[in-house]
Amino acid sequence: MSYPHTRLSLLSLSLFAGLSAGLLASSPGYAAVAGCGQNCIDYLRENVQARPLTAASIATVSDAMLRTQFTNYLATSASARSADKAALAAERKGMTTVPAPRGSGKNNLATMPLNQSGTYYQSAEALAIAQEIISFQIPSGGWGKNMSRTGVARTQGQSYIADEIDPSESGSWRYVGTIDNGATTTELRYLAKVQAARTGSSETATLQASIVRGIKYLIAAQYPNGGWPQVYPLAGSYNDAITLNDDAMLRVVMLLNEIGNSSNSDFAFLDRNLRNSAAQAATKGTTWLVNNQVKVSGEWTIWGQQHDMLTQLPTAARAFEMAALSSAESAKITAFLMTLPNPDAKMRRAVYAAADFFTATRISGQSWSNGKLSSSPNGVLWARFYDLDAYTPSASSVAKRSQTLFGDRPDTHATSAYGLVFSSIASVSTERLTGYAQYNSSPQSVLTTFATWSKSNPRP
After folding, report:
1. CA–CA separation, 150 vs 156, rounded Å?
2. Which three-class secondary structure state does DSSP give residue 380?
3. 235 lies in a domain?
4. Which end is more exposed in the chain, N or C (fewer Cβ atoms within 10 Å of the end residue's Cβ)?
């Protein structure tokens, strides 16, 4: 996927504003930067909100067949969302008090362990958690995120997710079915382990039926072009973007790939038709990844954290997450591609290009901890984000080969902008420095694996 130097029209005004702001900031005596307000050292531009999938946005697609496919997808999503709301509304009909939601848990994935011995999955504790998971399954087939599993089943009328949701037309209804933060894929893997350990028991049919619904949910959520939104049924906003952030889409591709090629025996009970559908979805998703690696200044690089579902170009998400190249998510994608057998020329090109990018942008002798960079003789780092218009791998220094980017919320900078983008951490708030991985070392292990992989997989 080549990222054009002339940006999409919806971004052009923001870029012009950012450029103007930068010029003003360099003028003597200019205290406040347009779009930033205060604490504006190394300010580049405002962040721009991602667009949701709508009938209007679909109408801009030139390919008639794809336009029809996305129109049908949007209608199916809306129907599933309405059915989910109707189911909860029916449960609550006549109730004077709605049960309190379960609430979020930071270590929620640890309450669905996937690395225990077989005897654990045969235990009453594991079964109770599995039954709880099934009770919270949303009618459309997915699960909410950040829910600690305690073995206590959902009660009538209780929210499907960690937070309260309102099934009325104007009510809050977000993350009701998501692949964010390991949701849905973790539930499915856990349920599969429990059913495999209890094959032939009285609970087998219920466990297997839930798993089938969950897999069909993931397949239904896939966009016609092969990507996955963060939330399905669609919720609007940046949640509709094809989401690589926190390995969301990759987790789905990996699970469906295991199911499709029968490498995970926990799913051996699934019929051949569903395994074939899983394999097709995984292949389509993998193809999307290879085809949508970003090209900058004529050079293949890595991937964005989110990509627009229609243009398939990198796009923004939260206020501090701009359209950019993303190192951590790209490292995981590259690692996955290296696990696939018999890679063709396009896949090998994708892996080599990513390895080249990681090599060119590697920062040596630094470490990142508690929101601060410090000298470290053996430290190796990469910025989380890199600019989409700046990559010169032949430049003499790391600083000249690419442009690092750092995002922040607007409130720290006294601005009404959606979010702000900086070229260094100098003005980024302490909250975003300590609460977000602005630097990471994920690509290092990828380069280590690549050194071996490349010996048997030549550059195309």
Report:
1. 17
2. strand
3. yes
4. C
Type of residue at 371 = G
Q: Are strands 306-307 and 325-326 parallel, antiparallel or unpaired?
A: unpaired
Closest among 113, 269, 112, 153 to 204, alpha carbons compared: 269
* Ordered alpha helix ranges (H), 115-171: 118-121, 124-135
Residues 270 and 340 in one domain: no
Encoded tokens for 113: 């362990």
Give me the pLDDT at residue 107, please. Answer: 79
Distance between CA atoms of 357 and 355, rounded to whole angstroms?
A: 5
What average pLDDT does this structure show over 181-190? 98
Look at residue 23 and give its three-state secondary structure: helix
Q: What is the mean pLDDT of the chain?
A: 93
Taking only the tens place, the pLDDT of each residue in 57-74 is 999 999 999 999 999 999
Name which of 459, 398, 404, 409 is nearest 432 in CA terms.
409
In the three-class reduction of DSSP (H, G, I as helix; E, B as strand; rest coil), residue 260 is classed as: helix
Q: What pTM does this model have?
A: 0.92
pLDDT at 10: 38
Question: In which domain, by residue range, is 339 found?
Answer: 328-459
Residues 362 and 243 in one domain: no
How many domains does the chain divide into? 2
9 has a pLDDT exceeding 70: no
CB contact at 8 A, 180 and 99: no
- 3 state DSSP class of 385: strand
Positions marked active-site: 181, 318
- CA 247 centroid distance within chain: 5
Report the 10 Å Cβ neighbour count for 169.
8
